[in-house]
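Problem: given the chain below (143 residues), write out its structure.
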Amino acid sequence: MREVQENEVRTAEQVFGARVRELRDAMKITQNGLLLHVEITTGQAGNRIKMDPSAIARLEKGERSIRLNEAAALAAALDMSVDEMLRKALPPEEQIRQAEKQLERAHWRAAQAEAEHHVAKARLERLRTRLGGGDGGEHRETA
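Solution.
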């Protein structure tokens, strides 16, 4: 298989391989370095994959197909989802804007969870007081 030219239609695997190369270059790591990241990332989840630097090189050139578990492991090692790996990279300003929106949504969800925690804690305290159950050591709250 020959290397894909810039203006050609590319398969999902070719797009994925190009993104691996782009992100690996941006991280300034070698193909071996990427495989170490993959090993660390997948080793914790128990989903090790078997790839070598030449497999990464062929993938990046669009000369090798990729299994789903390999795609998931590489994406995780590059701090991306498989879906993000298949989309065209956004300009840096847009990436920052989207990350800020994601952070804002996470902050809002955290605030909701904290409020829910306070309501549940207060309800539990009221029930213990009203029912005279105390905590009996069985259902101690840790937070």
